[in-house]
Specification:
By secondary structure, the protein is α+β, with helices and mostly antiparallel strands. It is built from 3 helices and 7 strands; from the N terminus they run ααβββββββα.
């Protein structure tokens, strides 16, 4: 937990306070990368939180202060539309019952993947995370 706090500038407990009440936390882990290209030593790059919503949807949030989190999917879009949440720009992609969101807030980069949540639930989650 101390490594997380020193990497992103806020505590695990402070992060959890921003998330919706009633959720069921399912995982917290780091995505590690080599210290250098030929190194056998790894360091955390992203910290990932996973939870289920009260309605049964799933949310995965990757957090990284150094740069954008490592992604396992990529959208090709020449001119993505940006939304604004409490004054912070966010790129939101929606496909069927899933949303992918990318934004930076207070010096920290976020990637969010959701499945089975409504647009209203996504809006509520984002406005809780991106405070004024």
């Amino acid at each position: 937990m101390k490594a997380f706090e020193s990497a992103v500038g806020f505590s695990y407990a402070e992060f959890l306070e921003k998330l919706p009440a009633g959720r069921r936390d399912t995982a917290f882990y780091s995505v590690d990368v080599p210290v250098s290209p030929k190194s056998a030593v790894y360091r955390p790059h992203d910290y990932v939180f996973e939870f289920q919503t009260e309605s049964g949807g799933s949310v995965k949030i990757a957090v990284c202060a150094a740069e954008e989190p490592i992604r396992d999917c990529f959208f090709v879009c020449d001119d993505p539309k940006e939304s604004e949440i409490n004054g912070t720009a966010a790129v939101i992609y929606g496909i069927q019952d899933s949303f992918w969101v990318q934004f930076a807030y207070a010096g920290v980069n976020y990637d969010m993947e959701t499945c089975g949540i409504s647009l209203k639930e996504l809006e509520d989650l984002l406005t809780c995370m991106i405070c004024r």
